[in-house]
Specification:
By secondary structure, the chain is of the alpha+beta class. It has 8 helices and 18 strands. Helices cover 18% and strands 34% of the residues.
Length: 362
């Protein structure tokens, strides 16, 4: 149960479980001059028209999902099997820097340490100051390779606009969309776009997206579980400066004494090797997840993996799950994940009983 099924989770459940959360509570109260009144459709259009700006800022995040505190892990590719689980618990603070699609840096601030994910052009670095270890990879020039190794730190945390994009893609007839009172986020006036599932079977109660009134940039996201007054998940900017950061923040060199690991990037060859290209594609197609249901009630099933998860991932999953009939359950306020005894994984923003029923149909 690694990044393969995590990549599919946003399409059928709450993508918050693969990101960090932020500051339990409600979005800050509005202040200052009110924004011009807009309908939900107009706010959605404002979001659609925004372009990812050059910016620097601080994200504060926490998750109140009901999981135990788990050990800290790294930020690099080798830690991706465990970092997502650790980021579901406790508070986290991250500094974010962006300047175009090829320059990004995220610093996750731990107690007495920090983790960095830095991209500058095709160069990507991951660094953990706790043990002075670094990983480096060189992205291939073609877009397909870059898509598989984003290097923007999104494997470790998610900015509000990244998360909002995924959540807003779930808007369908089964969702009520309204605009609440204006809010203030990082000193900027924002519209409060609220999504409320109509279904009473989903674990999700509501989602609020704070949308910058000038630029349309999502500044914060909070998700409440059904029946709960406080957010189970929240991520928001606490400070934000629009404009290009100093170019030096996107350059990185490992400190003296650091242990550096080179991460190879495999490129698919074309031409004479193209005759073999269909075999991996066929294999991947056979392993694609199956989705049952629709909208907020969707359940996704991931086929059993032939390889066992890494020992550190297996240990964390053992700590975070509880035994149930047919397997082990990772239960949160927003999403349930059932790891079946036969190796399959079933997940959704629905109660355990619905996951077990979906698994029994196969």
């Amino acid at each position: 149960m690694t990044r393969q099924w995590l990549r599919w989770l946003p399409a059928v459940a709450v993508p918050a479980v693969i990101a960090a959360g932020a500051l339990a509570g409600s979005l800050p109260a509005s202040a200052g001059d009110p924004l011009p009144t807009k309908t939900p459709e107009q706010v959605l259009q404002l979001i659609a028209q925004h372009r990812t700006p050059a910016l620097s800022g601080t994200l504060e995040q926490s998750s109140e999902l009901g999981l135990p505190e788990l050990p800290k892990t790294g930020t690099g590719p080798d830690s991706s099997n465990t970092a997502w689980l650790e980021l579901l618990t406790g508070p986290h603070t991250a500094r974010v820097y962006r300047d175009g699609p090829d320059n990004a840096r995220i610093q996750v601030m731990d107690r007495l340490a920090e983790r960095n994910a830095v991209r500058h052009g095709n160069e990507v670095w991951f660094y953990n100051s706790k043990d002075n270890t670094a990983s480096h990879l060189q992205l291939p020039a073609h877009p397909a390779g870059a898509a598989n190794h984003r290097g923007d730190g999104s494997d470790a945390t998610a900015t509000p606009d990244q998360l909002a994009t995924t959540l807003l893609a779930k808007i369908e007839p089964g969702t009520d969309v309204t605009v609440g009172a204006d809010v203030q986020v990082a000193g900027r006036a924002a519209y409060n776009l609220v999504l409320t599932p109509k279904s009473d079977a989903t674990l999700v109660g509501s989602i609020a997206v704070a949308v910058d009134g000038q630029t349309g940039l999502p500044l914060g996201v909070e998700i409440k579980a059904r029946g709960q007054a406080d957010p189970a998940f929240r991520v928001t900017y606490t400070s934000l400066t629009l404009g290009a950061p100093d170019a030096s923040v996107f350059t990185f060199s490992p400190p003296p004494g650091a242990t550096v690991k080179e991460i190879p990037v495999q490129e698919h060859k074309r031409g004479k090797d193209s005759g073999n290209a269909t075999a991996p594609a066929a294999k991947d197609s056979a392993r694609k997840p199956a989705v049952t249901g629709s909208g907020w009630d969707s359940v996704v099933e991931f086929p059993a993996r032939t390889a066992s998860p890494a020992s550190d991932a297996a240990a964390l999953l053992e700590q975070a799950t509880v035994p149930v009939q047919g397997g082990r359950l990772l239960s949160t306020a927003l999403v349930n994940v059932l790891v079946l005894d036969d190796g399959r994984v079933v997940a959704g923003s629905v109660p355990l009983e619905r996951l077990q029923a979906a698994a029994a149909q196969k």
